[in-house]
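Hello Y.,

Per our agreement to keep a running log of every chain we model this quarter, I'm adding this entry. I've kept the format consistent with earlier entries: sequence first, then predicted structure.
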Amino acid sequence: MARKQAKRRKQKKAPAFQMPTIRIGRIIAPVVAVGIIVATYHLTMAMLDRTISSIEISGPFQRVTALQIEEAISDEIDAGFVGADLDDIRSRIVAMPWIDQARVARRWPSRLSIAVTEQVPAAIWGASGLLNTRGELFVKEARHVPAELPRLSGPDDSSSTVAKRYLAVRDQLIPVGLDVRRVHLDARGSWEMTLANGIEVRFGRRNVPERTDLFLDVVANIITGRAADIDYVDMRYGNGFTIGWKGGSQTPAADSQKDGQKMLASRGTE
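Predicted structure for the entry above:
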């Protein structure tokens, strides 16, 4: 009897699986709320996105005109007050020749404000390229090259390197009354420099930073006192330099010693 009862218990069917019930209202309500928010946003943007009524462009305008800037961004202006992409507008302006920086902002209700800063040429690169005050080549072929600018030259990919050395040397020479007129780096990596007073300085291609320091610390002071008599300075020695005088003579000298005396330099150059 007990066995029959046990079999009956085993034969009882398991309860059927039932899907959990979810009220449709709990799903629909958030979806409707999100839809209302999105629709409100798009409706608001549509109401605000009016035609740009005016553009205010400010800047020094030495090389670029306001009309040229407006023409460069005309496509974005047509997108409307809200639809206009300010980052794209700024990128288009900065991509123009002679433009260094640009700031773009919306001015309610329908005005666009643009402020530009033009490039300031600091040196000529090669035949007609122009470098800015950061040593960046911003014009490869300028129509009008300012004759008063110093000339830098070298391999095509070396403009930044040459400009940095020029700026570093110039900043240290100006306080002692000297300036740099020309800097050249040849294909072998050899450096030459011409000062504003016409004196040529040869650094070569080895130990250039150390030779530059020696030139700035010692030779610059010698040049300041006797610039009219000096033709060139050759820094391409292992422990010193040679001064070429306009009369044709040479004076080799080594690094100044602790007692301030000068010794004859090694005669071997690069």
